[in-house]
Amino acid sequence: MQITSLDEYKKNYQLSIDQPEEFWAGIAEKFLWKRKWDKVLSWNFSEPNIKWFEGAKLNITENCLDRHLEKDGDKPAIIWEPNDPHRDSITLSYKILHEQVCRFANVLKKNDVKKGDRVCIYMPMVPELAVALLACARIGAVHSVIFGGFSAKSIADRINDAACKIVITADGAFRGNKQIPLKEVIDDALIGCPTVERVVVLTHTRTPVSMLKGRDIWWEDEIKLVDTDCPAEEMDAEDLLFILYTSGSTGKPKGVVHTIGGYMVYTGYTFANVFNYQPEEVYFCTADIGWITGHSYIVYGPLSQGATTLMFEGVPTYPDASRMWQIVEKHKVNILYTAPTAIRSLMSFGLEPLNGIDLSSIRVLGSVGEPINEEAWHWYDKNIGKGNAPIVDTWWQTETGGIMISPIAFVTPTKPCFATLPLPGVQPILVDENGKELIGNGVSGNLCIKFPWPGMLRTTYGDHERCKLTYFSTYENLYFTGDGCSRDEDGYYRITGRVDDVINVSGHRIGTAEVENAINMHSGVVESAVVGYPHEVKGQGIYAFVIFPKAHEDETLTRQDILKTVTRVIGAIAKPDKILFVSGLPKTRSGKIMRRILRKIAEGDTSNMGDTTSLLDPAVVEEIVLKRNTMDKLELKGK
Ligand code: WTA
Q1: Ligand 1: does its nearest atom lie under 6 Å from the Cβ of 288?
Q2: N or C, which end of the chain is more exposed by having fewer CB within 10 Å?
Q3: For the chain, what percent of residues have pLDDT higher than 90?
Q4: What pTM was estimated for this model as a whole?
């Protein structure tokens, strides 16, 4: 299944275009099916309706666990590194992981979770999180993992959207020197969630929690009541595996739906190829399982390939900026997959944290989540890879399920800041605003995909129309990614960032409309507009322009009030970096906010505002620029 030369890549790529069904059937053969498919692919992008491996029966956990037991039962499946470096790390062999998954799957069954039921998971980065995901998959329940940084209200919205029956959580989570009271947040969320019948609570931080009689039960107690025998439920290839909520350009997050067969084949294939994983190697992806990267490349991709996947509970800078490198040294990590924001943040501490640390185990480096800037690329290459570990800059999305455009380690010649070439089976095209295909090299436009791949989303939960509108209606018969992209003279792809109203903050997608809605919930706010601006560490920061007539009474306190409001409504991850109080917003005569102008102001590029003649009140722009410059001066003084 692994491609080892450029020539082989080219051949595989050509085959995947000429005979996609044969190509993917060949890959799928390498997995374990209870029954083979009747048809590899049927599709149209107009409804859309996409089916891979129709008629096939399988259970993904047999692929991720059972099939490795005979040969690799004692091989480490998960190595867990705790937040506190003084605590011991934990290694779960495939055999032990299998046992734990089966046991917890029986706990779910005992608590009346059935095939097709939705399970909300809100947990710290501990091995039990991976166990919870796999236990759901074992019995055919659909998991919906929510990242620990979301607020009670965001959780409630997601639980209600999917009508979850059960919640799996922990007393709390450690993140650096902070503790997050997960169970307490869940208690607040569940006030408005009538569908939830049970809450399973794992003991982790030992913070006091309230346990509601008849609803809340302890993980540790439950697993004692069941055995480890749990046959894998027979699932259809197109049955739901999970829902993962993601922000878009409208106010409400959507539940991206992935199904079992295609997702398994795609994440397994891309994992094995992109990272060139070799048996016995230790692979470390620093993402959180609350995001797609963790689903695909901490859990399902690596485990389906029998790999050893390292899970880290903490943050790269705790207790200090050498932590990530110490983990690499301690566990002899061979493949490190992280985000540009982490690289930039560690880079800012200089080379001192690397002193005396042996990074010689590193063979492959990866980057994901946002465009990597040239400086960070070279720093990563020189200081971590010592110039001889290829950097795979992997472009993909929650919706694509797995990596789409990326170098294949040791195969594709890399180029700083370029995601390089599409993986086999991926057919990208660039189009202009009118949907006209841009042919040839040296062009840039909007990135679309013109043919289905097995890992793609199938729908948005409970609202198929929304899926169609968001991804398949902008351009006819194309999947629209929302990203801008160029193709250089070598045919290499370079992703330039979002072209819609989505901001990429530290590799996390945040919709501007969502943040605006949250800000507007503060009682004093009349209106707001949010845009992204370049941020040294986060990639993009959140800039909010807010009309708040009484703000002048105490601007600092008002800013804090607004931040509190956003934290309550969405979660700490959506807090604006800058808030500017203004008396009006630049609007067209038809009342549309001209974000282009606000973006320029936020970037500090106020020399040329472009055409402002269509504005209702052009004077407003001058006022905002003036205010912004005053705020900048105050900030400089404050430093
Ligand atoms: C951006 C994360 C440039 C892009 C896997 C995409 C990237 C969004 C890259 C998806 C990359 C991801 N280079 N940009 N290598 N990888 N992006 O859904 O804008 O959290 O649309 O999935 O991140 O973010 P998501």
Answers
A1: no
A2: C
A3: 93
A4: 0.96
- Does ligand 1 have an atom closer than 6 angstroms to the CB of 244? no
Q: Report the separation in Å between the CA atom of 314 and the middle of ligand 1, taken as the mean of its atom positions.
A: 22
Residue ranges of domains in the chain: 93-233, 502-638
CA-nearest residue, atom 15 of ligand 1: 395
Q: For residue 140, give every residue at least 6 positions away whose Cβ sits within 8 Å of its Cβ, in sequence order, or none.
A: 59, 114, 115, 116, 233, 235, 239
- Please, are residues 115 and 59 in contact by the beta-carbon 8 Å criterion? no
9 pocket-lining for ligand 1 (C-beta < 6 Å):
no
Residue type, 286: T
Q: What residue owns the CA closest to ligand 1's atom 1?
A: 370
User: Which atom, in ligand 1's list, is nearest to the CA of 498?
Assistant: 19
**Model confidence at 351, in pLDDT bands (50, 70, 90)?**
very high
Q: Is the CB of 338 under 6 A from ligand 1?
A: no
Residue 639 has pLDDT above 70, yes or no: no
User: In 3D, which of 330, 247, 343, 246 has the Cα closest to residue 286?
Assistant: 343
Please provide the average confidence, as pLDDT, over all residues in the chain. Answer: 96
Going by pLDDT thresholds of 50, 70 and 90, the confidence category of residue 252 is confident
Write the pLDDT tens digit of every residue in 417-426: 999 999 999 9
Q: Is 71 exposed, middle or buried (0-12, 13-18, 19+ CB in 10 A)?
A: exposed
What's the pLDDT band for 612 if we cut at 50, 70, 90?
Answer: confident
Listed range (23-37, 242-256, 282-296, 473-487) with the worst mean pLDDT? 242-256
370 Cα–ligand 1 center, Å? 5
Average pLDDT over residues 331-357: 97
Distance 219 CA to ligand 1 centre (A): 35
* Fold classification of 93-233 (topology level): Rossmann fold (3.40.50)
Nearest residue by C-alpha to atom 11 in ligand 1: 395
Helix %, strand %, coil % for the chain, to 5? Answer: 35, 25, 40
Q: Which residue has the tokens 């491996």?
A: 53
Nearest CA to ligand 1 atom 7: 370
Residue range 145-183, pLDDT digits in tens:
999 999 999 999 999 999 999 999 999 999 999 999 999
Protein residue with its CA nearest to atom 14 in ligand 1: 370
Q: Tell me the per-residue pLDDT of 380-410, one tens digit each, with 9 for 90 and over.
A: 999 999 999 999 999 999 999 999 999 999 9
Q: DSSP of 167-208, one letter per residue?
A: EEEES-EEETTEEE-HHHHHHHHHTT-TT--EEEEE-SS---
* Nearest atom in ligand 1 to 406's CA: 15
Which residues on adjacent β-strands are paired with residue 93? 76
Q: Which residue has a Cα nearest atom 13 of ligand 1?
A: 371
- 502-638 folds as GMP Synthetase; Chain A, domain 3 (3.30.300)
Q: Is 397 in the pocket of ligand 1 (CB under 6 A)?
A: yes
Short-list 215, 102, 119, 133, CA closest to 167: 119
